[in-house]
């Protein structure tokens, strides 16, 4: 069964490969980004301010934190 997975650090070496692998097997991946989101598959995250779009996390099944 496909899952929805939130990934931080999704543009890095490991994150980009992980996202591709997760999507290849049918999972939905949400990317937490610190800049302005460019698509519906991205959500705004500001770790310094402790802010994230909480309403978009309702259907998230797992979180992978790779941001460094």
Give a brief rundown of this model.
By secondary structure, the chain is α/β, with parallel strands linked by helices. Helix content is 18%, strand content 32%. Strand 1, helix 1 and strand 2 form a beta-alpha-beta unit.
Overview of the structural elements:
With 68 residues, the protein is an alpha/beta fold. The protein is 18% helix and 32% strand. Strands 4-3-2-1-5 form a 5-stranded mixed β-sheet. β3 and β4 form a beta hairpin. The longest helix is centred in the first third of the chain and has 12 residues. It starts with a strand and ends with a strand.
Present the secondary structure layout.
Elements: E1 4-8, H1 13-24, E2 28-33, E3 42-46, E4 51-52, E5 62-65
Parallel strand pairs: 1-2, 1-5, 2-3
Antiparallel strand pairs: 3-4
